[in-house]
Design brief:
The longest helix is centred in the middle third of the chain and has 11 residues. An eight-stranded parallel β-sheet has the order 7-6-5-4-3-2-1-8. A two-stranded antiparallel sheet has the order 9-10. Strand 1, helix 1 and strand 2 form a beta-alpha-beta unit. The protein has seven helices and ten strands. It has one domain: TIM Barrel (Alpha-Beta Barrel), CATH 3.20.20. It is an alpha/beta fold and about 210 residues long. Bound molecules: ligand LARABZUK. It catalyses: N-(5-phospho-beta-D-ribosyl)anthranilate = 1-(2-carboxyphenylamino)-1-deoxy-D-ribulose 5-phosphate. Belongs to the TrpF family. Its EC number is 5.3.1.24. This is N-(5'-phosphoribosyl)anthranilate isomerase. It comes from Skermanella stibiiresistens SB22.
Amino acid sequence: MTVQVKICGVGHPGAVQAAVKGGARYIGLVFYDRSPRHVAPPLAAELARMVPTGVRTVGLFVDPSNEYLEHVVSQVPLDLIQLHGDESPARVAEIKAAFSMPVMKAIKVSSVADLDVVDAYAEVADRLLFDAKPPAKVSALPGGNGIAFDWTILTGRTWSKPWMLSGGLTIANVAEAIAISGAQSIDVSSGVEDRPGHKDPDLILDFLRAAGR
Ligand SMILES: O=C(O)c1ccccc1NCC(=O)[C@H](O)[C@H](O)COP(=O)(O)O
């Protein structure tokens, strides 16, 4: 089966063009103002309008208020909301109901015990994304840190909802990560950047090739 790829944190048209050309199935827009990948809604709307039918535009949020979500979704055509903060299962369900949109919940993983919460989120979210737990330092972002976790934690596991693998994926390790984890969908951000927050179109194309697109 061909692996589906999400290119997360795009911020300029060349990145969207490369992702689409290379066969990405998801394009991620970061709505978190502490991130170097943050895009304001007017630019995000411009980028989202470049995304063809068949490729989904994902809006990434961290513990958003309903007001902020409304502010964004009223301006940017999104297909999926990604929640990457400490949202509880109840809050995930509330957002899904309030916005009538599919929701993907990020689960931060560093050991097998971190998977204990998955079933509760799988009951309410449409999709799951397994990402590396961020480093303990206060300045760390909740995601997009270029850190991988032990993919064998996911080997042979099944859940009731589709899931993506993310965290520290690169051109050099993506094939191994897919083989070990069994992921059918993957997500990358810093592994296709030439500097923090800036996607390199050539790295995007090379990554998509390395992932088998
Ligand atoms: O990418 C960010 O800047 C970001 C900021 C705040 C919360 C989440 C963020 N990214 C989440 C993603 O979906 C990333 O693609 C994922 O963490 C993988 O990132 P990387 O390890 O850099 O490939």
